[in-house]
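The instructor's notes for this session suggest beginning with a concrete chain rather than abstract definitions. Hand out the sequence below and ask the class to guess, before any prediction is shown, which regions might be ordered.
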Amino acid sequence: MALLPSPGRVLSGLQRLALASARRLLGITPEPPGELRKVPDDLPRDQLYAQPLLSTVSVKDPEPVEGGTRVAFRVVVKDANGRRCSDIAVEARITGPERSASAQVTTDMLGSALFRMTGPPGSYAFELLDVAAFALDWDRDASDLTATRVVT
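After discussion, reveal the predicted structure:
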């Protein structure tokens, strides 16, 4: 008497075989489990926003925190039609009394990016370096590029 596999086991084996055959025919290689892979950013942003982009810089009120004061600068990115632009890279530098730091932030759903620095009282200078990382036209001349805040 021969042992036969159950119908469910046969069906499961046939499904795995069909999936492997389809992947082989389509040239799809299975990802190793637990491995992350980079996905290219393929959104056509040049068709989403009217160019050139414009940016404005504003300074928020300083907040006292443990060990000093937190100074925040907000950048708002809008397109040529005045619509706020989300998911746009913004690069800036903040120079404080003790140190200088550069950072790149992506705008949120409202088209704004927040840059913060904590330190002692003194002068904090903000400089906007780049918007959209050369992917879209940015009108640097018509945009706000700098802001300062003196904390006492």
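Then share the key points. Residues 47 and 136 are 10 Å apart (CA to CA). The chain is about 15% helix and 40% strand.
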